[in-house]
């Protein structure tokens, strides 16, 4: 059985409940499974073993990279309803006061910024193909730097993506619940709300549409979603390295990057961190599965609990940023407070970034 057919079999046997994909039954079964317990021993919970994890960061400059859907918010049936709670936003705001922090998402950058509403973060949308830094004035030293970090390696593919989006919207119209999301430099075809028997034909039509543009595009899978991306050597892992370079933190001897994510696309970032010794990945998952991450959390609520512990640690003398104070584009808050940024205000409309000259190789 091919990987894609195996994944579709999983989708046929699972469905969302009350708008949120839960795994309570699966989690209960997993908790008594010897295989799951063995996997958990290899990928322990960083909340329970927080001190052990942070010993690895001793004397290093911690940076934090966060996926959005399924990591900071639960997976929901309507992609437009994946809003961030005020309590989670407050934790992420406090985190960004203490560590350089980034959101790395498959969503369009503008969409995920409108959900998060924190100007002091770095953002990498479209699976890292649309990058920008903190907004001017959001953190010390960022006045002109936002344009310097802005990078769109897939800018040349935007027209073909727009055309394909219109084509797929028409193609999936006969399948109630199917949604095509235009993420600017990639497309997402969601089938979470479709009848299970619709999955194979939706897969077929998306595969055919991509095959007709096989010199430019490729298709990958997420959680009940088909992702269409440019054929570039660019992913969440390369985006992470790019951002560390922009911050002038690419030296493995001085940095300890934490990347938290739940999806297959996050594995590229987990792998980069493991291979380069730059930090570690934390997988959000209710079940055992192959991963390059070293640690695991069960749910977005566990992610928030972990980030709260990290904030507490960041306010202590153990945080190397307390003496280093800043990197390019970011500065530790002089007096961290929960009232920074823009709660209750409409989301910022960022300045459109200007692509830099270099272009990743196609492949």
Description:
- The protein is an alpha/beta fold and 363 residues long.
- The protein folds into 2 domains: 34-152 and 234-331, HAD superfamily/HAD-like (Rossmann fold, 3-Layer(aba) Sandwich), CATH 3.40.50.1000; 155-230, 2-Layer Sandwich (Alpha-Beta Plaits).
- It contains 13 helices and 13 strands.
- The protein has a 7-stranded mixed sheet, with helices on both faces.
- Helix 5 runs parallel beside helix 12 and helix 10 crosses helix 11.
- The two termini are 26 Å apart.
Q: What is the string of SSEs from the N terminus onward? A: HHHHEHEHEEHHEEHEEHEHEEHHEE
CATH architecture annotation name of the largest domain: 3-Layer(aba) Sandwich
The tally of beta strands, per DSSP, is: 13
Instruction: Tell me the CATH superfamily of the largest domain.
Output: HAD superfamily/HAD-like
The total tally of domains equals 2
- The N- to C-terminal Cα distance equals 26 Å
Unreliable spans are: 1-29, 336-359
Strands of the biggest beta sheet: in what spatial order?
4-3-2-1-9-10-11
Strand content: 15-25%
Outline, from the CA principal axes? globular
The CATH topology of the largest domain corresponds to Rossmann fold
Number of helix segments? 13
Mean pLDDT: 85
Give the C-level CATH assignment of the largest domain.
Answer: Alpha Beta
| Relative helix content | 25-40%
Biggest beta sheet attributes: 7 strands, mixed
- Overall radius of gyration: 20 Å
Category from helices, strands and their pairing: alpha/beta
């Amino acid at each position: 059985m091919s990987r894609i057919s195996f994944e579709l079999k999983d989708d046929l046997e699972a469905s969302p409940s009350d708008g949120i994909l839960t795994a309570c039954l699966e989690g209960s079964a997993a908790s008594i499974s010897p295989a799951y317990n063995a996997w958990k021993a290899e990928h322990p919970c960083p909340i329970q073993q927080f001190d052990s994890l942070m010993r690895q960061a001793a004397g290093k400059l911690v940076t934090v990279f966060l996926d959005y859907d399924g990591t900071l918010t639960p997976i929901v049936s309507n992609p437009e309803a994946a809003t961030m709670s005020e309590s989670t936003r407050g934790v992420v705001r406090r985190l960004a006061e203490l560590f350089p922090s980034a959101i790395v998402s498959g969503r369009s950058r503008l969409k995920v910024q409108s959900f998060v509403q924190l100007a002091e973060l770095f953002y990498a949308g479209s699976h890292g193909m649309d990058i920008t830094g903190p907004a001017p004035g959001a953190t010390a030293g960022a006045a002109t730097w936002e344009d310097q970090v802005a990078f769109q390696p897939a800018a040349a593919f935007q027209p073909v993506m727009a055309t394909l989006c219109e084509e797929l919207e028409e193609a999936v119209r006969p399948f109630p619940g199917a949604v095509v999301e235009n993420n600017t430099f990639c497309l997402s075809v969601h089938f979470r709300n479709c009848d299970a028997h619709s999955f194979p034909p939706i897969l077929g039509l998306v595969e055919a549409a991509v095959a007709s543009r096989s010199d430019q595009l490729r298709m990958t899978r997420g959680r009940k979603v088909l992702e269409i991306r440019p054929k570039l050597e660019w992913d969440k892992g390369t985006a992470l390295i790019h951002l560390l370079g922009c911050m002038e933190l690419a030296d493995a001897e001085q940095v300890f990057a934490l990347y938290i994510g739940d999806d297959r696309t996050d594995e590229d970032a987990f792998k980069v961190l493991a291979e380069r010794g730059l930090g570690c990945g934390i997988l959000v998952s209710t079940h055992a599965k192959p991963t390059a991450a070293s640690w695991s959390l069960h749910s977005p609520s566990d992610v928030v609990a972990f980030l709260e512990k990290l904030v507490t640690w960041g306010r202590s003398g153990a945080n190397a940023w307390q003496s280093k104070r800043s990197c390019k584009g970011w500065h530790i808050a002089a007096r961290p407070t929960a009232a920074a940024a823009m709660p209750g205000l409409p989301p910022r409309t960022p300045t459109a970034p200007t692509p830099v000259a270099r272009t990743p190789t196609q492949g």
